[in-house]
């Protein structure tokens, strides 16, 4: 409801319209205007060379950025444990280092569901695109809202984020589809 009031739309995980594709992300209310950020792709962020092999086994949620950085958006299993561990390691005094709730069915940031956006396919053309964003130094009191943790300790800013941007107006009832092989990088 808050999302609808603030942004004019709401997105949720739901069964995909694509047969056998599992769940996807659907606009459930309002309209996502063209150019709006409509989801975040959360996860543990791996720099090139970081050991992702074990966490990537059977994992459909590893997002490869154009520069060799990877975001592991799987909320369960080893991936989920690693995210919790890295976020716990980076906790600073009273300030959580990250929003850990994206791994649950009720993420505190309702936009942190981008890892469930399905790939375009015949009859289901893409209506969103991935955009990599390098966030400048985020003050500690605000990091609790970010669904990201570095795998590696003590990585200086910027923090990598991946968001999904609407390519056109997307109306209630429509599912979000991306092209898994197209990424835009902005610093
Ligand atoms: C990042 S996950 C997306 C969320 C996934 N649908 C789920 O329910 O967990 C990517 C996986 O979703 C499925 N998927 C995505 N797009 C698809 C499509 N167009 N057709 C069939 N399966 C798809 C594939 O199994 C793929 O490996």
TrEMBL record:
Residues 7-181 form the SET domain. InterPro entries: SET_dom (IPR001214), SET_dom_sf (IPR046341), SETD9 (IPR040415). One of its GO terms (molecular function) is S-adenosylmethionine-dependent methyltransferase activity. It comes from the Eukaryota. This is SET domain-containing protein 9. The gene is SETD9_1.
